[in-house]
Structure to design on (366 residues):
């Protein structure tokens, strides 16, 4: 579903523009940056944007040769959107063969697997960086982090995200400036130069390597649930900024974020991400919403006979702000205790590892 939703959004922007309607988002040509890994990697190479060394392979023998040349571990990526399942990090020759079976043999991803990217495995800390773009200028958002794995201590399968907080606690202001200068601005300039001027949210997935930051991938949208954490800290009125950006010029030089921190705990249903249970009535929404500094975001809910029921994988995001990150997390978890349905599941460790190695005062940092 995410796959179709995303593709549809790309066309929607073009449709709006064709009808003379203002819309803030990337046109289909600009959204190729997320839609095709081959396009993205070749684009990075054309513009000297730091990324992992790579080869594009069109068939299995070519892919095998490339993988062997990089050594192990090696990273293999299907070209198109594959709902997060198109990337394999192979630790052994068997795992390389399994990934190639999947991409070329079973054709699980349809045309998404026609070409694959083989790339060098990078090591370092993985971070995200978000900015709004109006085609020519960027307004960086505050830092935010997501927790992709389903279970505590980063175990279990990848998901869309099980929790988030802002600030991320991972990037200094200097690192942020470096990422803007070496990666995001060259990306925006390169896209404009290629007649794919980018308007919308640029979300870079990066690895902080010993040689400096390198881009792993771009998403051409805001992350979920990072967006909720970021919006709770935004001081500016977003609508006029987006309207100005859609018209081609934000007209301001920076966004303003509250010093307080924010955190989001995702409440999911048993069975997510594969086959979530649906239909349970949800209790305690009102009580949770009455907690101070708490907002409960609905994602996969529906109304049935006047009662809110769980109707999807990630069902709710319980978000809170606080002076320090620890306060925001504590408030979000306290409000979470009010909510229940039979198949409710959530991670108990969002932010925990970070807090154990951080000094107080993080709430006051970007
Ligand atoms: P991607 O969709 O390209 O971001 O890849 C999904 C995940 O695979 C990333 O979030 C990283 O954790 C990992 N990954 C992708 N490319 C590399 C790489 N070259 N080296 C190490 N890990 C990678
Ligand atoms: N939370 C990661 C994403 O939205 O892709």
């Amino acid at each position: 579903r995410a796959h179709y939703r995303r593709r549809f959004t790309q066309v929607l922007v073009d449709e709006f523009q064709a009808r003379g309607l203002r819309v803030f988002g990337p046109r289909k040509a600009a959204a190729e940056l997320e839609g095709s890994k081959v396009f993205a990697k070749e684009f990075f190479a054309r513009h000297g944007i730091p990324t992992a060394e790579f080869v594009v392979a069109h068939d299995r023998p070519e892919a095998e040769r490339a993988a062997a040349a990089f050594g192990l571990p090696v990273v293999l990526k299907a070209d198109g959107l594959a709902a997060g399942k198109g990337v394999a990090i192979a630790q052994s020759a068997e795992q390389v063969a399994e990934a190639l079976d999947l991409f070329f043999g079973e054709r699980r991803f349809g045309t998404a697997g026609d070409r694959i990217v083989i790339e060098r495995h990078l090591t370092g800390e993985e971070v995200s960086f978000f900015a709004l773009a109006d085609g020519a200028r960027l307004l960086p958002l505050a830092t935010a982090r997501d927790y992709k794995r389903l279970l505590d201590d980063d175990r279990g399968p990848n998901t869309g995200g099980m929790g988030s907080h802002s600030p991320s606690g991972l990037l200094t202001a200097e690192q942020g400036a470096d990422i803007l200068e070496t990666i995001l601005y060259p990306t925006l300039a390169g896209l404009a130069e290629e007649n794919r001027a980018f308007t919308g949210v640029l979300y870079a997935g990066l690895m902080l390597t010993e040689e400096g930051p390198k881009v792993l991938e771009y998403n051409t949208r805001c992350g979920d649930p990072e967006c909720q954490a970021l919006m709770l800290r935004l001081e500016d009125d977003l609508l006029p900024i987006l309207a100005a950006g859609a018209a081609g010029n934000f007209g301001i030089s920076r966004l303003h974020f509250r010093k307080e921190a924010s955190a989001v705990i995702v409440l999911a249903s048993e069975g997510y991400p594969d086959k979530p249970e649906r239909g349970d009535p949800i209790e305690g929404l009102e009580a949770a919403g009455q907690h101070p500094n708490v907002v409960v975001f609905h994602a996969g809910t529906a109304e049935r006979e006047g009662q809110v029921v769980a109707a999807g994988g990630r069902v709710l995001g319980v978000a809170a702000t606080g002076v320090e990150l620890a306060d925001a997390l504590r408030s979000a978890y306290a409000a979470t205790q009010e909510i229940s349905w039979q198949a409710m599941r959530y991670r108990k460790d969002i932010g925990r590892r970070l807090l154990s190695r951080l000094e107080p005062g993080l709430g006051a940092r970007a």
